[in-house]
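Please fill in the sequence for the structure shown.

STRUCTURE ENCODING:
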């Protein structure tokens, strides 16, 4: 099924884009069409860069507060995709890219991505430390995270 979707993406998508660009070039003019494609690429890349920097600052702020920046990372991925499709010449790719840069539309896409991820992905966490190195159960299960400083280390045979 994935192969079929990739086939559609790499054949039908470009053919549709070329048809739209040809139609626009014939009815509006080739110079205007090429100018429009270049302008949307430049403006779109600048907008994606700006929103990417803002999102990166939000990620850093959330991490500094000790919180997981899941929403901001998803925003960053969607902004990256928007930047990629905006520098790709075409009318439909520009519409998709600009729509991914609009926060309300991006939040709709994020909800869909979350639903898909919950359905198709599993998260497994492991414990490191004592349990990893010893064959038995952990000797001590801490209830809270303590701050500590390593003073000395040594290898025990």
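FILLED IN BY: designer on duty
SEQUENCE:
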């Amino acid at each position: 099924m994935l192969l079929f979707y990739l086939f559609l993406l790499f054949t039908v998508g470009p053919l549709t884009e070329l048809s739209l660009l040809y139609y626009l070039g014939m009815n509006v003019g080739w110079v205007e069409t090429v100018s429009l494609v270049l302008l949307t690429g430049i403006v779109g890349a600048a907008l994606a860069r700006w929103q990417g920097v803002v999102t990166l600052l939000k990620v850093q702020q959330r991490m500094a507060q000790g919180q997981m920046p899941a929403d901001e990372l998803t925003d960053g991925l969607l902004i990256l995709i928007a930047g990629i499709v905006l520098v790709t010449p075409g009318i439909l790719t520009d519409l998709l890219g600009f729509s991914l840069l609009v926060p309300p539309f991006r939040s709709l896409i994020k909800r869909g991505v979350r639903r898909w991820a919950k359905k198709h992905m599993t998260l497994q966490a492991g414990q490191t430390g004592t349990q990893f190195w010893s064959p038995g159960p952990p000797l001590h299960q801490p209830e809270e995270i303590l701050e500590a400083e390593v003073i000395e280390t040594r290898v025990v045979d």
